[in-house]
Amino acid sequence: MGAPATYSDLSQPELVRRACEGDKDAFYSLVRPCERAVYVAAISILNNPADAEEVAQEAVLKAFTHLAGFRAEAKFSTWLIQITINEARLRLRKDRRHLYESLDERRTDADGDYDPKDFADWREIPSEELKRGELRNALKRAMATLAPKYREVLILRDVQNLSTEETAEILGISEGNVKTRLLRARLQMRDALAPGIDGSWSAGKPEYKKVRPW
Amino acid sequence: MSVIEISCLEVWREISNYVDQDVAPELRARMEAHFKSCAHCKAVLDGTRNVVKLVADGVEYKLPKGFSERLYTRIKGK
């Protein structure tokens, strides 16, 4: 199999038209710019790289099959991410792994008011901390403990930098809901990470040592 | 001109919108005044900003090696 044909000079509608006629290289040209977004959308729900790749690829193939249903005025990436999110949710349901319910889901499902775990001071991230693996690992752990409905919003908004409007469209929820969930997600991440500045990122010490007194 | 005081609870409800610069000017002014006098809320604000900065980095979500090639192969094989 040769390298993909390049269609960099063709517009989206023209690529869609060709892809609908079965031109696979034209379809790949449509997908290529948003393949990371598709993968990240899948991992935001599945929280596992291997499953995320499989679901992301399945979603792309499904999109190819259903390309005729794509509305020309829509944004291709939004449409593709929507399909991916749906596929990832289906997979999650099938695997019944959602039976695992995180503590955070129960604690905050009612979307009640936020109650900070503590007021650990976290004025800035020292640059050496950013380079060390501990902070990144702590971040990964914190992301993994977020309930999926918060994690997906956090990832679409803060990793993929999508607007509130686009995030709402992709997830099929209101913009107000996107904002509420984003607030929850960010504050839970803060709760999980903030005390780490005082030493919890050191290997083997998952709990934090102290909270700076005021 | 003095601004109407705001409670910590109200600040926390809006803190994420504040970080996104998505609050009305009047509320923004009240929150800014609050952050000047409340070290706790200032700490929550700084922490929230750090989270946004850290998450935005996104290195945890790099595309697996060979993803594009595998995807292309699957599309061509369909």
Nutshell version of this structure?
The complex is a heterodimer of chains A (214) and B (78). Chain A is mainly α and 214 residues long.
| Proportion of strand residues of chain B | under 5%
CATH architecture grouping of the largest domain in chain A? Orthogonal Bundle
* Count of the separate structural domains of chain A: 2
Output the number of helix runs of chain A: 11
End-to-end Cα distance of chain A, whole Å, is 65 Å
Query: Which residue ranges of chain A are poorly predicted, with pLDDT under 50 across at least 5 consecutive positions?
Result: 101-110, 197-214
Coarse shape of chain A? elongated
CATH class of the largest domain in chain A: Mainly Alpha
Number of helices of chain B: 4
- Please tell me how large the radius of gyration of chain A is: 20 Å
- N-to-C terminal Cα separation of chain B, in Å? 68 Å
Given as residue ranges, the uncertain stretches of chain B (5+ residues, pLDDT < 50) are none
| Average predicted confidence as pLDDT of chain B | 91
Shape of chain B: elongated
According to CATH, the homologous superfamily of the largest domain in chain A is Winged helix-like DNA-binding domain superfamily/Winged helix DNA-binding domain
Radius of gyration of chain B: 21 Å
Largest two-chain interface: A-B, 50 and 38 residues
Structural class of chain A: mainly alpha
Order of helices and strands of chain A: HHHHHHHHHHH
The biggest beta sheet of chain B, please?
none
Quaternary structure annotation: heterodimer
